Amino acid sequence: MSDTVPGSTPMVRFDAVDKWYGDNHVLKNINFEVAKGEVVVVCGPSGSGKSTLIRTVNRLEPIQKGKIYLDGQDIYAPSLDVNAFRQRIGFVFQQFNLFPHMSVLDNVTFAPLKIQKRPRGEAEAFARELLERVGLAAKADAFPGFLSGGQQQRVAIARALALNPPVMLFDEPTSALDPEMVGEVLQVMRSLAREGITMICVTHEMGFARDVCDRVVFMDEGQIVVDAAPDAFFENPDHPRVRRFLADIL
Ligand code: ADP
Ligand code: MG
After folding, report:
1. ipTM
2. For the whole model, what pTM was predicted?
3. Could you tell me if 166 and 197 are in contact, meaning their C-beta atoms sit under 8 angstroms apart?
4. Which residue windows are transmembrane per the record (predicted)?
5. Which terminus of the chain faces fewer neighbouring Cβ atoms within 10 Å, N or C?
6. Which atom of ligand 1 is the closest one to the Cα of 46?
7. pLDDT by residue (tens digit) across 189-224?
8. Ligand 1 atom nearest residue 45's Cα
9. Nearest CA to ligand 1 atom 10
10. Separation of alpha carbons 245 and 239, rounded Å
């Protein structure tokens, strides 16, 4: 949770960001900050721009106007070392996309070995520690196809943590899971939030939002319509579109 020093550099900052896909204006004047250690939930109707918003943080999508900063650094600056930059952001998608032909342990050690050139012993020790944290120490030698969806998503979280990123982005990490597996993934996300890692989570899990996050951002038609503390968001949804959204999903 948040333990921000007032005036310190935000971990992520959007400054008047606009993005179009062709004629489709998908991000409209986005101004938004995430402090170090803060956990922000992004929600809103389908097509409102949530995925696009978090994909721009990782430079997976170009923007046409404005700036995005990671810990004060302009992420679209020509001088930016993109590979080094990407190592500072962990990304967990709806589809876990594990390497199917590699064991769980090899999935988690892949980036530390290939990208960071860490010694194998060290990478494996850290991977086992991460698997322990997501409750899968016993599955290190299993192959993804033999795991449940919830277990695969927990491996994907361990893999994203393997480069020790200061920021974790989640894009609907539980939406592709059978209902009985949602809880185990949210449990892992809750424990990460408590450890003070900065998190931006696109999710419709409103229980998680209410209990865990510091702020809820609600998007509609490419705009941030509400950016509020969870209590204010849930108890006084003063925006009609938020009320409609909550009525539909709760
Ligand atoms: P959400 O995650 O809130 O459902 P998205 O960010 O995926 O919304 O989509 C926002 C808008 O951008 C939608 O109109 C969608 O059709 C469009 N869009 C998303 N991805 C692409 C893409 N790769 N190419 C063109 N249009 C896209
Ligand atoms: Mg999406």
Report:
1. 0.98
2. 0.94
3. yes
4. none
5. C
6. 4
7. 999 999 999 999 999 999 999 999 999 999 999 999
8. 3
9. 49
10. 10
